[in-house]
Amino acid sequence: MRKPLELYIHIPFCVSKCKYCDFLSAPVGPGEQAEYVKSLCRKIRSYAELAKAYRVISIFIGGGTPSILEEGQMEAVFHAIGEIFQTEASAEITLEMNPGTVSYEKLTAYRKMGINRLSIGMQSADDRELRALGRIHTYEEFLASYHMAREADFSNINLDLMSAIPHQTRESYERTLRTAAGLAPEHISAYSLIIEEGTPFYEMYGEGRNASDLPDEDTERLMYEDTKRILREYGYHRYEISNYAKQGFECRHNLGYWERTEYLGIGTGAASLIGNTRFTEGGEPEILSRADQMAEYMFLGLRKTRGVSRQRFEESFDSSMEEIYGRVIDDMKEKGLLEEQGDHVRLTERGIDISNYVMCEFLGTG
After folding, report:
1. Which CATH code is given to the segment(s) 290-366?
2. Contact call for residues 156 and 119 (beta carbons, < 8 A)
3. Model pTM greater than 0.85?
4. How far apart are the C-alpha atoms of 186 and 236, rounded to whole Å?
5. CA distances in angstroms from 97 to 5, 174, 285, 359, listed in the order given
6. Is the dihedral angle over the CA atoms 248, 252, 256, 261 positive or is it negative?
7. Using only C-alpha atoms, what is the Rg of the chain?
8. Which of 1, 23, 35, 306 has its CA 20 to 30 A from that of 351?
9. DSSP string for 61-103
10. Environment class of residue 143 by beta-carbon count within 10 Å: exposed (0-12), middle (13-18) or buried (19+)?
């Protein structure tokens, strides 16, 4: 019986690097791009032996900006996957794309390749905010790409939104939320800007610099509350800390990460979890101890609003959750940060607000 596997394919190219981005990506010329795709296809084919034990249940093409590839290059990647891996007919196959990098012809080609889900980097409906982020598109260009995707018969689309960005107000963020939700995408990911070291934004805003350009903590908190309230109003349910979906359109690939489904990352810097071994392409593998695996089960699973299953924990580790984490769970319940619902332990609303604190409590306990 083949085991379930998720595939992640990394395309580290973009038109230009956004000012906040610390992902492994950069602009390159057509020659480097073509060479990378050839190398990527060779790497995919190198997993022929491993692939015999698995069936692929989801594929996620991320970056960077995967939609920057030429149609023929993307076809070559999928041809290599098809040669080596057995992919379920019902697999969720997601491609990240940015407005301004696709045409109707390219989108229809994606559908023929089997891509059935798009994740579009909208970020904001305000052009000033988009310029501040270093995005290459305007809101109108995003809208044209979104409608083009619908015309190309994509019926499962995620929009990425960002809050707490330069020059953003609570009112402008609410307009972005309502504009995005009004388009009725099946899924919305809503993230708060994090100023990462090594990015242009860190030089501009790190360590309190130019703080007046950014929403203050109180406004950021209100934006967080607005996200939950407004998206609920439009029929989206929150199934993970930063992710909202129409019923039945939760991102299966991401759920797999949070539930520790085995995944194979292919491409520069891509991460993998195979069995109890975690590794990054080009790096040394790390063998996870039983304690590491139990801790991951807890702090990754608690990202989901439904929480973690006691039964699945016991089936996976041959110990009860109470035996390993009973003291921590009781303490978090007393503080109003965890609660029980049937077989599951999950974060309360207050627990979600300070989830990093709660999840850290499970590290080193097992």
Report:
1. 1.10.10.920
2. no
3. yes
4. 8
5. 23, 24, 30, 31
6. positive
7. 21
8. 23
9. EEES-GGGS-HHHHHHHHHHHHHH--EEEEEEEEEEE-TTS--
10. middle
**What tokens were used for 212?**
């007046």
Of 150, 70, 91, 86, nearest in space to 118 by CA: 150
Which residue carries 């109707």 as its tokens? 104
Distance separating alpha carbons of residues 237 and 248, to the nearest angstrom = 10
- Compute the residue count for the chain: 366
Looking at domain 3-256, what is its CATH homologous superfamily?
Aldolase class I (3.20.20.70)
Per the listing, tokens 């940015």 go with 98
Express each pLDDT in 69-125 by its tens digit: 999 999 999 999 999 999 999 999 999 999 989 999 999 999 999 999 999 999 999
As given in the structure block, the two tokens for residue 92 are: 């969720």
Task: Pull the structure tokens for residue 155.
Answer: 């019926």
Taking only the tens place, the pLDDT of each residue in 33-81 is 999 999 999 999 999 999 999 999 999 999 989 999 999 999 999 999 9
